[in-house]
Amino acid sequence: xTNIQSGTAGSLLLPVxxxxxxxxxxxxxxxxxxxxxxxxxxxxxxxxxxxxxETPEAALIRELEEELGIAVPHACLAPAAFASAGLGERHxxxxxxxxRKWSGVPRALEASALRWVRPADMHGLAMPPADRxxxxxxxxxx
Length: 142
Ligand SMILES: Nc1nc2c([nH]c(=O)n2[C@@H]2O[C@H](COP(=O)(O)OP(=O)(O)OP(=O)(O)O)[C@@H](O)[C@H]2O)c(=O)[nH]1
Hints:
By secondary structure, the protein is an alpha+beta fold. The protein has helices spanning 56-68, 132-141; strands at 13-21, 28-32, 43-44, 47-49, 78-87, 90-99, 113-117. InterPro entries: MutT-like, Nudix_hydrolase, NUDIX_hydrolase-like_dom_sf, NUDIX_hydrolase_CS, NUDIX_hydrolase_dom.
């Protein structure tokens, strides 16, 4: 398997995976980035960077366990959309998955807060710039 972090793309691309957890009312879980981190205070999809040697799905399953304390089976991660945006000196490639099934109740283990939001209501929230194009896509998919 080719590692997206190596080769001619070099260190420019930053692969990040994130999940839109969807509840029975069609709301999506967002988490607030804590103080002391980049983009602190903004509402984002749970997830994080893909580490060397990890598949995107393994990275997302790990991040959801670390950040929310939930277990998501690989089969319940449906590829949904992506975003591509400049991020400082790097270039963010954000892969967004949709999941409707998980084990456990999400808790804010790393974020400062969690909230369930309908995609249409995300337009009024402070979110990372890269996430903006994902809102309409999510609205159409959920
Ligand atoms: N998890 C997540 N990350 C996002 C979203 N949108 C977005 O631009 N990002 C960016 O993608 C990167 C995700 O890495 P991360 O969540 O593991 O960040 P981190 O706190 O470990 O690293 P950091 O301390 O450099 O911010 C961050 O730079 C974050 O700002 C999103 O919706 N979810």
